[in-house]
């Protein structure tokens, strides 16, 4: 899970995830939308892949990237487990103490 939080911690990687919400893109299409080198984008994509947030599929000379929402679903379930639940208890009101 550390890889997941590390991947989500960077604004560029979050922007890449936002782009992929619109559909699969290859590395070149992703790189075109950023003002940084292609090797830098490749590094970000690799960290996202290692975290399981994206899936990479080679098609010919291109690598296509797709969002993997399964990891995010698992993260949300884990985070929701920390949410307090208000369950009724058998607490007595002051006039029921006898």
Automatic annotation (TrEMBL):
It comes from the Bacteria. Keywords: DNA-binding, Transcription, Transcription regulation. Residues 1-87 form the HTH arsR-type domain. The keyword Mitochondrion does not apply. One of its GO terms (molecular function) is DNA-binding transcription factor activity. The keyword Kinase does not apply. SMART domains: HTH_ARSR (SM00418). Pfam families: HTH_5 (PF01022). This is Transcriptional regulator. It comes from Spirosoma telluris. The lineage of its organism: Bacteria, Pseudomonadati, Bacteroidota, Cytophagia, Cytophagales.
């Amino acid at each position: 899970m550390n890889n997941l939080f590390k991947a989500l911690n960077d604004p560029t990687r979050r922007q890449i995830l936002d782009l992929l919400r619109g559909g699969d893109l290859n590395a070149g299409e992703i790189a075109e939308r950023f003002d940084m080198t292609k090797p830098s984008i490749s590094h970000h994509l690799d960290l996202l892949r290692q975290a399981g947030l994206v899936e990479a599929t080679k098609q010919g000379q291109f690598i296509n990237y797709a969002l993997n929402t399964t990891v995010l679903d698992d993260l949300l379930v884990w985070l929701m487990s920390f949410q307090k639940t208000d369950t009724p208890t058998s607490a007595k009101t002051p006039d029921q103490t006898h």
